[in-house]
């Protein structure tokens, strides 16, 4: 390699690294800031130093003493896990049916579902509220789980695109060997679809974990609230004087999901690009 | 399974079975099947028929009455003996939703009825040709083998019908009523008003001004939000994946952070970070001797902050997708370009960019659509503020969807909110259908 080229590469790489470092700071700053705020003494948003002058864990203990934070946490986990299991099953089945089978009305049904998926859920919340009222399900976690799970199949397109990539010959070979629809789905297709299952499960889990508009409408009593609703209500009108406690709540709420996402990165890339048109 | 009578004189098939079976099914669902000696199926359908007649007689007239009138008795005081007692009237909204459910059930039953007639006709025809009709067991295994997608889709579709389609129809109906907080049932009755709400919203000066301004900002916002997120993600992807960069997975993980943090947490945090008085951003600016910026209190600045925060939130997704696509671009294209002496920027401009754009175009449009509807960020970050005195219940940064939310949940103007909902729905559907029809995932994959 000529020396001129080498120098140019070094310059290019240096600039790249500087950009990478700046971007990392930009991405990580809010998380670090809230983490530091949660350990800072005092309860105000304002801090006259960049790094906290002294550290304390009291905001975390206060969180459990002043608010039913543990109950909120368990509620959220319960709702998110149930919605995840139900929603994932429904989404996978929907995607599979559209990917493998050809039946009349298939394309129209797919278009309808896709358009409905764009419809923001809360626009129809008044009707759902009345429906839940009729079924005596207001202020119950069951209601929230049913609505989240029922909405999940609207996002079947990733599942469908993924199933499209599984070689048809594999399924046909199994069918010749006499396997029924259910064994084919469970024994052949699903084991080949780990990235899809992880992606779908992750999306329904976080969707249910973080939704707050619908949960806020349905869950009224404090013992039924979820993290999102609880945290939102907490800062509602007095966040400026309880800010550090709110920060501690944010850290506790965000850490599990964040870790989950980072661990599942590989599946995320696969899942996200499955829906893309690969020429 | 058709038995061919080779050599024998096959009699001209008469049409008596199919006609009789179909006719019996018209009289009562299931009779045709019983006539065709499909007893279990026939009696099952007959049971549905009885249920259908029962519903049609007991609930349907009430449902239709309710849908037409939306209730007739108002809640009022009535003299019972010597004291006045409040007598509950009709609850228009409950009536509307219940009637909708009844009508839905009736439609399903009618569909079943028609399917039953068709089935009886078909089976009758087979019998004329000398084929034995399927026994119930055979029917079940036939359904399991050839109607599998229908069975699988039944539960998701039912859920979607109940929790998405029905509420949407309800919302569309509300747009044609006078349903507001002032006419809230059960104290009041709601009336059909036709296009009144549409006229008021689009023609009255105060309302139409808000409507057009908010719509304009919604599109501007969606455009900038999509463009910044997409190109930011593109740049980050190129940066991370470029030759000679080490610790690729570390950088990627760092950039995923904004995406990984639950949105309600990060947006609420951002609201504090950009707090004009106490927030750290202004504080650092102060330390550097730069004047504080009115991040969330000035209309223009609030809009810029919104786009900036959205950039932070959205570029990781684009980055991940583009990294995925970059790995599918054939290496030999770059090698060929190297031989032709192309520079790095030329390769990016002439190979990478077109290849990624080709794959990403549908997704960019979907993101644009999603941004038109991006309720969370606006509601949690600015809540539409700063307020605008010229607007009806909307602030400078309110987009259509948050305005709709405020109108219904805070102001109780349900009919106006529904009109906006219909408008959003039409805009979205046009984009979505046009876009989805073009993507490969949607085309008939095995057509060729």
Automatic annotation (TrEMBL), chain A:
Subcellular location: Cell membrane
Alphabetized GO MF terms: ABC-type maltose transporter activity
Ranges of residues in domain ABC transmembrane type-1: 73-264
Keywords per UniProt: Cell membrane, Membrane, Transmembrane, Transmembrane helix, Transport
Entries under Gene3D superfamilies matching the protein: MetI-like
Segments passing through the bilayer: 12-36, 79-101, 113-132, 138-158, 243-264
Protein name as it appears in the record: Arabinogalactan ABC transporter permease
Native species: Paenibacillus durus
């Amino acid at each position: 390699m000529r020396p001129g080229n080498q120098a140019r590469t070094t310059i290019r790489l240096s600039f790249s690294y500087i950009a990478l470092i700046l971007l990392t700071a930009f991405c990580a700053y809010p998380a670090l800031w809230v983490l530091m705020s949660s350990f800072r003494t005092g309860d105000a948003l304002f801090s006259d130093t960049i790094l906290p002058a002294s550290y304390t864990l009291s905001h975390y203990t206060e969180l459990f003493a002043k608010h039913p934070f543990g109950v909120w946490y368990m509620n959220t986990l319960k709702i998110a896990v149930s919605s995840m299991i139900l929603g994932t099953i429904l989404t996978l089945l929907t995607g599979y049916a559209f990917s493998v089978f050809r039946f009349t009305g298939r394309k129209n049904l797919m278009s309808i579902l896709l358009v409905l998926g764009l419809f923001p859920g809360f626009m129809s919340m008044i009707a759902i509220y009345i429906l839940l009222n009729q079924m005596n399900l207001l202020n119950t976690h069951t209601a929230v789980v049913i609505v989240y799970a029922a909405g999940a199949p609207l996002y079947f397109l990733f599942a469908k695109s993924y199933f499209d990539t599984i070689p048809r010959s594999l399924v046909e070979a199994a069918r010749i060997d006499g396997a029924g629809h259910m064994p084919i789905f469970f024994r052949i297709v699903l084991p080949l679809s780990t990235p899809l299952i992880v992606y779908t499960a992750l999306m329904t889990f976080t969707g249910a974990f973080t939704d707050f508009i619908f949960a806020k409408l349905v869950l009224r009593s404090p013992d039924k609230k979820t993290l999102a609703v609880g945290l939102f209500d907490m800062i509602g009108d007095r966040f400026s004087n309880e800010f550090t406690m709110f920060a501690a709540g944010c850290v506790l709420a965000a850490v599990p999901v964040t870790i989950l996402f980072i661990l599942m990165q590989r599946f995320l890339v696969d899942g996200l690009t499955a829906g893309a048109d690969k020429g | 399974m058709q038995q061919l009578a080779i050599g024998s004189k096959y009699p001209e098939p008469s049409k008596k079975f199919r006609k009789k079976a179909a006719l019996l099914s018209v009289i009562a669902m299931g009779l045709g099947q019983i006539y065709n000696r499909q007893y279990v199926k026939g009696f099952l359908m007959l049971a549905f028929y009885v249920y259908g007649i029962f519903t049609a007689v007991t609930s349907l007239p009430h449902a239709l009455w309710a849908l037409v009138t939306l209730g007739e008795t108002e809640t009022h005081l009535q003299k019972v003996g010597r004291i006045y007692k409040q007598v509950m009237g009709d609850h228009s909204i409950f009536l509307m939703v219940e009637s909708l459910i009844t009508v839905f059930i009736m439609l399903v039953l009618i569909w079943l009825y028609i399917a039953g007639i068709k089935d009886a006709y078909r089976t009758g025809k087979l019998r004329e040709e000398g084929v034995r009709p399927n026994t119930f067991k055979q029917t079940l295994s036939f359904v399991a083998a050839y109607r599998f997608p229908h069975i699988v889709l039944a539960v998701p579709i039912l859920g979607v019908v109940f929790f998405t389609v029905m509420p949407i129809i309800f919302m569309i109906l509300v747009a044609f009523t006078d349903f507001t907080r002032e006419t809230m049932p059960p104290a009041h009755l709601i009336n059909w008003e036709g296009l009144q709400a549409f006229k008021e919203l689009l023609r009255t000066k105060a309302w139409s001004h808000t409507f057009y301004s908010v719509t304009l900002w919604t599109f501007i916002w969606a455009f900038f939000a999509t463009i910044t997120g997409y190109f930011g993600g593109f740049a980050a992807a190129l940066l991370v994946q470029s030759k000679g960069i080490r610790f690729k997975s570390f950088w990627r993980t760092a950039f995923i952070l904004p995406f990984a943090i639950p949105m309600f947490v990060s947006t609420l945090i951002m609201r504090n970070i950009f707090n004009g008085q106490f927030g750290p951003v202004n504080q650092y600016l102060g330390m550097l001797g730069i004047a504080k910026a009115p991040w969330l209190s000035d209309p223009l600045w609030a809009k810029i902050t919104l786009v900036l925060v959205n950039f932070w939130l959205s570029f990781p997704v684009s980055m991940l997708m583009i990294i995925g696509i970059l790995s599918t671009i054939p290496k030999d294209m770059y090698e060929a370009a190297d031989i032709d002496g192309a520079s790095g920027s030329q390769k990016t401009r002439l190979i990478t960019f077109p290849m990624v754009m080709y794959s990403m175009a549908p997704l960019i449009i979907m993101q644009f659509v999603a941004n038109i509807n991006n309720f969370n960020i606006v509601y949690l970050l600015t809540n539409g503020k700063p307020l605008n005195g010229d607007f009806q219940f909307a602030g400078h940064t309110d987009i259509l969807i948050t305005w709709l939310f405020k109108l219904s949940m805070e102001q109780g103007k349900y009919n106006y909110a529904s009109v906006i909902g219909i408008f959003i729905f039409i805009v979205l559907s046009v984009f979505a259908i046009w876009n989805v029809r073009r993507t490969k995932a949607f085309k008939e994959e095995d057509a060729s």
